Amino acid sequence: MTRPHRLPDFSVIVWIKKNEKFPSLRSEVFAAVGAEPYEMFEYQGMADFHWGMSNIADARKVAEALSVTSQRPEVVLLMIMSRVDEVDSITIKDERRLQH
Which pTM value belongs to this model? Predict the structure, then answer.
């Protein structure tokens, strides 16, 4: 019997718009993190990447490594998601909201 996949305590999540700049921006993000994400999704013109960490300090380091890249308009979301009850998730950038 296989064990169910356990999600990491902390995940750094990045959403990138899929346009002509996507391939180079994706490479830039992966180089900044220094690892492949544990999860990737693509939908509605976005690519969604998740990197897992066991502690908030490592998650903060990864988010900090992405801080310059996250200023690009193609980066829609950068956040640290916490699955630890005592630790809040941290949103660094979130432009998912509809603009009127």
Answer: 0.89
